[in-house]
Q: What sequence folds into this?
């Protein structure tokens, strides 16, 4: 498994120790019903239309502010998916394999799951084309949003691991 080094000029990252085994954290990421519970922080409701966790597979989500009317959120392609280890996708190619210029920015997202004495070290990295794109993402609330999503993931995985 190779990882791209973090570039502080182009990348943003959040990480957390999740007190659950990697397999449980993976399940919370790879099961569409579980993923929908944390992918976009509340009060937004998420619908997972396609979750094909294989290289070249589609990742399509919708979101709703009222819980009934869903609008497109993301159409992306998985670049890699290594069970319980690593997920990488990009929104620069849509689920139909068409090059796109997504608003507000194009990115490649990498999620890693590493054994830790307390459970799983989970790291979510957003890689950007330019330093300006990185700053735009930061200004739009990357840290708050991706941290809230990570906390939601942790809540589901830790709850399952504890039998709650």
A:
């Amino acid at each position: 498994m190779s990882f791209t080094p973090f570039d502080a000029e182009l990348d943003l990252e959040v990480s957390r120790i999740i007190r659950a085994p990697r397999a449980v954290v993976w399940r919370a990421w790879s099961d569409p019903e579980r993923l929908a519970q944390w992918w976009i922080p509340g009060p937004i409701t998420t619908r997972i239309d396609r979750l094909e966790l294989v290289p070249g597979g589609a990742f399509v989500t919708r979101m709703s502010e009222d819980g009934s009317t869903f609008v497109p959120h993301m159409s992306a392609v998985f670049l890699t998916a290594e069970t319980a280890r690593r997920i990488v996708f990009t929104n620069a190619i849509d689920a139909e394999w068409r090059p796109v210029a997504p608003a507000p920015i194009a990115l490649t997202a990498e999620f890693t799951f590493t054994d830790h004495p307390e459970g799983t070290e989970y790291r979510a990295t957003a890689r950007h084309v330019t330093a300006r794109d990185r700053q735009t993402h930061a200004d739009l609330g990357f840290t708050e949003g991706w941290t809230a999503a990570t906390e939601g993931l942790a809540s589901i995985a830790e709850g399952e691991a504890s039998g709650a």
Q: What stands out?
A: The chain has a mean pLDDT of 95. The longest strand covers residues 71-82. The longest helix spans residues 142-162. The two ends are 33 Å apart (CA to CA).
